[in-house]
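Before surveying the methods themselves, it helps to consider a single example record, giving the amino acid sequence and backbone structure tokens:
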Amino acid sequence: MSTRRDFIRTSAGAGVGAALGALPKQLEAGVPNIISRRVTPVCVASGNGLGAVSRAIEELANGASTIEAVVRGVNLVEEDPNDSSVGYGGLPNEHGVVQLDSSLMHGPTRGAGAVAALEGFKRPSLVALDVMRYTDHHLLVGEGAQRFALSMGHQLEDLLTESSRERWIEWRAQLSDRDDYLSPEDSGERIGRFQEPEEFGDGLLDSHDGYRPQGTINCDIVDSDGDLSSVTTTSGLSYKIPGRVGDSPIIGAGQYCDNDVGAAGSTGRGEAVIKTCGSYTVVEMMRNGMHPTDACIEALRRIVHVTVEDRLRDENGRPNFNVNYYAVNKNGDWGGAAIWSGAQFAVSVNGDSRHEDSAYLFERG
């Protein structure tokens, strides 16, 4: 693991190189910290991304670029019907329609692409990749994003599974006891009481049903040359107002990558991340010399500072929601942090994949 002083030197040198253009070949030997230094490949992701980081590092070893590696990694989660927070099987909006969001950045080319409120395509990260590669735009939304995906050959599919449909029906039935919907127990269906699984315990407190499930996967990578990429993909806050867009498809919020510095991404309450330009803030803190973990903590402090709404704070004035950040810098240093204790993230260092405990601001009671 490199020192922070090495990272500052590397970042500063890379910035000069970017300003002046590529260094002549004869000068490369004189700046090993910028050009010649090899980095141990590292991939970090949210806690649901253990398989994703493993796949990403494998893809990298097989010759994939950093952006191809992270996208193929998150595709595993997008395709998983048992992960109800991302892609296929994702929990729908209040009308029962699954709307997906994704954004990504490729460090070496400075490329970026994103889609929001996309319906009918289980791998929105692939559509975002096509936006980056084949258009002069960075973000396509709604029907326009859907038409673009069709034009690029992506297959239109029904993204609701029986499980996600049943959970939406039960949520709808519990909105009011004065409407025409019957709960599953009233109708004789054996779906069970509405209770979200423990992994959604960081959801936003809601007046109807306790905790609103929300989940996402962010994945960030650095290769042996110090090149970086990042991607975030999600089905967003469950039962949201149709058209609601969180931080995931917003470049600089849900993820951000600067090939001179590092990459970062987020999960949790998207509105809080948007308001503080969260992932961009993490990268800028790393540019100033902070270790990735410290940079994540500083970005979380900003969220705490600007959260002034009573409905979003507990009795001690602290956020009643969670936000998680994950980051890796150009030297291969990595870290993750959350507002509240108990969170974990996934990391793969040169093929060794595992979960790590996130740093945090506040201890859960």
Remarks:
- The CA atoms of residues 1 and 156 lie 45 Å apart.
- The chain has one domain: 4-18+26-159+211-362.
- Residues 4-18+26-159+211-362 form a domain with the Glutamine Phosphoribosylpyrophosphate, subunit 1, domain 1 fold (CATH 3.60.20.30).
- The chain has a mean pLDDT of 85.
